[in-house]
């Protein structure tokens, strides 16, 4: 009886939900705008939430094409019409000049203050040029590089950074996202309190402060995936990059999904297509995974005391960056199967029976991910300690005693030039070089742990750039992880996966570093005060 009633009422449930949220938003708007509520409430955050609910409800009955048609019409009759009127041989030069002008104006116009000098911004810009020049010089096929994707990707990355770091609206939006992420930590702590007592969540331990939020977040993602909300959001997000950067549908889906669900899980979204991907698409899929982090570990980094606005903005910036840089390093030379569509296929084999089943499966998956993180960190930190013990003993025979020889010390000097190219202040160069090296050799968890250590003394500019530089899965451990996942999904492509893996790792690391360079170009003292 209850199920029959539910089936009859189901079409009206979204309408009722929308009406409730409409009343909520109108009441909130009246209290803020008309009654001048002054206890920290603003109209922007409720509006964004209400807008998301409204769009989701509307698209249950109205196809997205209905909304995109007017946008496409305006685009075709303004920007694209001007593009067609321009001689074809001038398309790339004009696009390049416009991009360079945007970079120069955005980074050089603001006034100098403190650590924020035009010289330091110029160094960050020079570092970005060096990265792109290196990618061009080592490209698999320079004549096949899709410059539309490269220029559009770098410009999108810069515009996202300007929006987040230079505008109040952008700051408010990402601060709101960061605030929501922090709120999730509180709910996980309630579960820990139930299992133990109210003193355990307050302990300064990685095991009690970081692991429970990961388990809860993965379970929540599984629930959202089962309900279709996550796929809907990812496909909408992917459409933007598919349309603007002219990449294949599979590449757009993976790039859009990776910051939310992770490198292995994003590949699972296009599992039926993986056996048929071109080598360039495989390279792109892996590069996206190396260039950013996942939402599950993002929560843990926030709990470690790292700046949430920097972490969230870096994840979004890495999407167009990974698409642009991968296409420079390994351009497409074949016909792609998903070149004309963006779709997330249904996974009937692993589909949960209902929402409760999906949530339980997610909790179990979260426990496995948390266990993998704990065991990996334990072994890596112990192994680095072993290496440092040997190096310290070996260094004493070279009279290296005052500052013992260690892996961190060696990496600090080896990556000293990289830190300089990012625009890091001179006094922070060796420390930031160490942190970047630790991230590549071990993983970003260990690097962020070093960065958040009270004994790690850095300037605000150096700390922000280092946070951006480490915000990605580009490390040797993730290399093995991605090879294993993709080879398991498509055993027949294991050879191709292995062939492009190292190149994809290099491209992913450079994509993350490019975000750090752009952060150095846009850094201001006002940003330092906000973050």
TrEMBL record:
Keywords in alphabetical order: Cell membrane, Membrane, Transmembrane, Transmembrane helix
GO molecular function term, any single one: symporter activity
Sequence ranges assigned to domain Nucleoside transporter/FeoB GTPase Gate in this UniProt record: 208-304
Protein name: NupC family nucleoside transporter
Keyword Membrane attributed: yes
Species of provenance: Truncatella angustata
Span of domain Concentrative nucleoside transporter N-terminal: 126-198
Residue ranges of the TM segments: 12-35, 47-68, 90-110, 122-139, 145-166, 205-225, 237-262, 282-302, 369-393, 405-424, 500-523
Superkingdom classification of source: Eukaryota
Cellular compartments annotated: Cell membrane
This protein's GO CC annotations: plasma membrane
Pfam families per record: Gate, Nucleos_tra2_C, Nucleos_tra2_N
Record family assignment: Belongs to the concentrative nucleoside transporter (CNT) (TC 2.A.41) family.
rRNA-binding found in the keyword field: no
Chief site of localization: membrane
Topology of this chain in the membrane: Multi-pass membrane protein
């Amino acid at each position: 009886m209850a199920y029959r009633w539910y089936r009859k009422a189901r079409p009206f449930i979204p309408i009722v939900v929308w009406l409730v949220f409409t009343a909520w938003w109108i009441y909130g708007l009246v209290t803020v705008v008309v009654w001048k509520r002054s206890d920290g409430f603003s109209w922007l955050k409720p509006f964004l939430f209400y807008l998301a609910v409204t769009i989701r409800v509307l698209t249950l009955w109205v196809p997205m094409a209905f909304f995109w048609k007017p946008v496409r019409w305006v685009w075709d009759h303004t920007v694209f019409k001007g593009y067609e009127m321009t001689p074809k041989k001038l398309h790339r030069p004009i696009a390049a000049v416009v991009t360079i002008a945007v970079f120069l104006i955005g980074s050089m116009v603001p006034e100098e203050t403190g650590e924020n000098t035009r010289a330091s911004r110029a160094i960050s810009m020079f570092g970005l040029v060096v990265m792109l020049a290196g990618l061009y010089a080592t490209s698999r096929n320079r004549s096949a590089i899709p410059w539309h994707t490269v220029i559009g990707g770098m410009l999108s990355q810069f515009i996202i950074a300007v929006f987040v770091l230079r505008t109040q609206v952008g700051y408010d939006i990402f601060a709101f996202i960061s605030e929501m992420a922090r709120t999730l930590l509180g709910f996980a702590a309630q579960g820990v309190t139930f299992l133990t007592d109210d003193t355990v969540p307050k302990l300064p331990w990685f095991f009690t402060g970081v692991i429970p939020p990961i388990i809860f977040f993965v379970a929540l993602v599984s629930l959202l995936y089962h309900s279709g909300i996550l796929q809907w959001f990812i496909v909408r997000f992917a459409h933007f990059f598919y349309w603007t950067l002219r990449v294949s549908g599979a590449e757009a889906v993976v790039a859009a999904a990776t910051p939310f669900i992770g490198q292995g899980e994003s590949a699972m979204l296009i599992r039926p297509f993986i056996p048929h991907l071109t080598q360039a698409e495989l390279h792109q899929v892996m590069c996206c995974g190396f260039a950013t982090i996942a939402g599950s570990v993002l929560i843990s980094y926030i709990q470690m005391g790292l700046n949430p606005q920097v972490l969230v903005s870096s994840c979004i910036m890495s999407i167009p960056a990974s698409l642009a840089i991968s296409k420079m390093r390994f351009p497409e030379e074949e016909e792609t199967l998903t070149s004309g569509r963006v779709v997330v296929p249904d996974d009937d084999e692993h589909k949960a029976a209902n929402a409760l089943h999906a949530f339980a499966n997610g909790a179990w998956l979260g426990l496995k991910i948390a266990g993998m993180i704990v065991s990996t960190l334990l072994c890596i930190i112990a192994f680095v300690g072993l290496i440092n013990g040997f190096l310290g003993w070996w260094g004493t025979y070279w009279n290296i005693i005052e500052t013992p020889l260690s892996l961190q010390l060696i990496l600090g000097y080896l990556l000293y030039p990289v830190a300089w190219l990012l625009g890091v202040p001179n006094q922070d160069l060796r420390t930031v070089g160490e942190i970047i090296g630790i991230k590549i050799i071990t993983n970003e968890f260990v690097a962020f742990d070093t960065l958040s250590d009270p004994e790690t003394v850095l300037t605000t500019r150096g700390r922000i750039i280092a946070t951006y530089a480490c915000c990605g899965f580009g490390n040797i451990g993730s290399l093995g992880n991605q090879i294993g996942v993709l080879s398991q999904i498509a055993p027949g492509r294991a050879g191709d996966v292995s062939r492009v893996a190292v190149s994809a790792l290099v491209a992913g690391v450079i994509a993350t570093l490019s975000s750090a360079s752009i952060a150095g170009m846009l850094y201001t003292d006002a940003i330092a005060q906000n973050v």
